[in-house]
Amino acid sequence: xxxxxxxxxxxxxxxxxxxxxxxxxxxxxxxxxxxxxxxxxxxxxxxxxxxxxxxxxxxxxxxxxxxxxxxxxxxxxxxxxxxxxxxxxxxxxxxxxxxxxxxxxxxxxxxxxxxxxxxxxxxxxxxxxxxxxxxxxxxxxxxxxxxxxxxxxxxxxxxxxxxxxxxxxxxxxxxxxxxxxxxxxxxxxxxxxxxxxxxxxxxxxxxxxxxxxxxxxxxxxxxxxxxxxxxxxxxxxxxxxxxxxxxxxxxxxxxxxxxxxxxxxxxxxxxxxxxxxxxxxxxxxxxxxxxxxxxxxxxxxxxxxxxxxxxxxxxxxxxxxxxxxxxxxxxxxxxxxxxxx
Length: 341
Hints:
Ser/Thr_kinase_AS; two-stranded antiparallel ribbon; alpha+beta; 20% strand
């Protein structure tokens, strides 16, 4: 049980603007969407100012019984992230959510059921001075981008990544969790030998109690699936992210690198991502399966597992192949007795 001055989270803020407070001129905070009906809001007089004043985030400062060491060099819109240590010197990561933002209760409970394998362990969670927090295990080896070092991975090494990442996504999906923001920064390296990859940052995750539903929550454009651009949430969207990550690790750079977000969006909804012809046939097969634009026909763990076993006769529905097949189906025009294609 936590100490008495902490409150274990009892509810989840709704997605969208209800999860982020707005501050009126009088200094009070309006947290929207917390009441029982549409448009309800709760006014908490002066809480934000008191919360910010009572938590002093400085190196060497204290948060509960932990000592603040240094901030993580990452940008997060939902939380402050700090390396911390307990009274015995054991190190963790503190995720201190912005005022008015709380982790989704149903997601947090589901993540706890996943256990130690494939996800960053939440050692403790609660509320302090009006702000939600999580104490997470410290991952020593950084994220997947750091592991790759900006260079193409050797194919044997990459197959280990495919197995680790694929099994992690399958593990989440078995618990009906759709991550929705899988990218190298959210894939951490727990151990190097053997390679152990774990998922983190479930801030916009959803429960898949229905196969598809709509949302407007932001995600990372470079790794977004085509259907996610239109607000559709599906398990297949996570597998698209896996495909993009594999292609990046295979080539050493993101296939859409240097494009604006608007150009990326247009590319995804009209053409998808091209699988390069110069890569090996086995990698083409995997990527065509994962980068199929139709989420219902996209590969998932079953097909990826077969690919890892060396099978090559696995059906794909990649649009690039379909276009090549269909170019010979056009009926010619007849002009002066000649057939014109």
